[in-house]
User: What shape does this take?
Amino acid sequence: MKYDLLIRGGAVVDPAGGLRGLMDVGIAAGKIVEVAPGLPEAEARKVISAKDRLVTPGLVDVHAHIFVNSSDMGEHTDRLCNAGGVTTVCDAGSAGSANFAGLRFVVDSAVRTRARAFVNLSAIGIAGAARSGELAHFPYADPEGCAQTIAENRDFAIGVKLRYGPGIVWEYTTEPVKVARRAADMAGVPMMVHITGTPLPLPDILAHMKPGDIVTHCFHAGDHGIMGPEKQLVLKEVVEAQRHGIIFDCAHGRGGHFNFPLIEKALDQGFLPDTISTDLTFGTATRGPVFDLTTTMSKLMHFGVTLDDVVARATATPAKIAGLEGVVGTLRPGADADVAVIELRDGNFEFRDTDGNVVAGRRRLITQTTLKNGRVIYERPAE
Ligand SMILES: [Zn+2]
Assistant: This one.
C-alpha cells in the first residue's frame, strides 16, 4: 500500500504551491506524498471522496485568541477552529511575560490544533483588558520580559503583540511602538500591531515597522486606519508599506474591526489584505459575526476577492509568519498532511461586519472535513 489515505477527485486549490485542478491527494505517514489526477485507489488503505468539493491546505489563522482572560477558547479551540478548516492557529497576544506559561500549559495539555503565539508587550496580556487596557498602566510594559519569554519558547512564540488603541496604551505618542520594536528586535522576531481607532495616524506607526511586521485589523473604519479621515482612498504610505513587505492582516473580530463599506473601497483600489484571519474568540465563534475562517474568506469573496486569493492568504502566507513555511499551508509533497475539504455552496447567506452592515451573500465556503497530519479531526455533521 502506497497511501494510508487518498482524497479522491476534489478540486485542489493551492495557488501558492502551484497546484490547481481536479486531482487526488495521496497521504502516507502523516505527510502529503503525491498530488495528481488518477492516483491508484487500490494502493490506498482508505479513500475519502472530495467530489464536487474544494481541497485546500489546512487553513492557518494567524490572529485568534486561545487565552483571552486566561480561558476563552481554551479547551474549545479545536472544536471552533477545526470546524472552519483551520489546522494551525496563532494566538495574537492573549498572554504576556507574566502569564505566557499558562497559555503554553493550556495549549500543550488541551489543544491539538497546531498552535503558535505572539507574546504581548504587556506582562499581563489581554487578561482584564476590558476593565483597563493592558498597557494603560506603563509599568505593565515589559520589553525585556517579552523578549526573554520568546527566547524561552522558540518552538511556540513567533512575535511581539502591541495593541495600539485608545485607552490601551499609556501615552498617545510613538513611544509604545518604539518599546514594542525594541522587544521584537531583542528577540529577533516580527511585531504585530493592532490599529483599530488608534490615536496616532497610521503612517506614524508604519515608520517604526519593518518588512515582516504585521498591521492587524487593517479594515477597521475608526480613526486613523488605512485611509485618510474622509475614508475614500488608501493612504500612499500604506501602499508603500505593503510594497516593502509589511503585512496587512484583516483580523475580523468584533467591535469595529471589520467594515464592509471600507473593504469594498479598499478592494476597488486594488488593496488586498496579505493575510485573512478571524481574531476568533469563544463569543465571536459561537454568536458571530465571525463564526469561522471560511466565513471570513466568504465575506471577502462576496466583495470580489478570488477563491485563489483568499486561499493563499489563509494558507501559505500565514504559514510563513508562523515559521511553518513548506510544513503547512501547502499541499506540495513533503508537507504535513493538513488538509481542508470545503464546499463552495450557492444559496442565500447573510453576512455581517462588525459595524451593523449586512449583505446578502450568494456563495459560502463551508468546511466539510478537516485533516491534520493525515488524520480526520473534523467532519461536518449531516444536515
Ligand atoms: Zn485580537
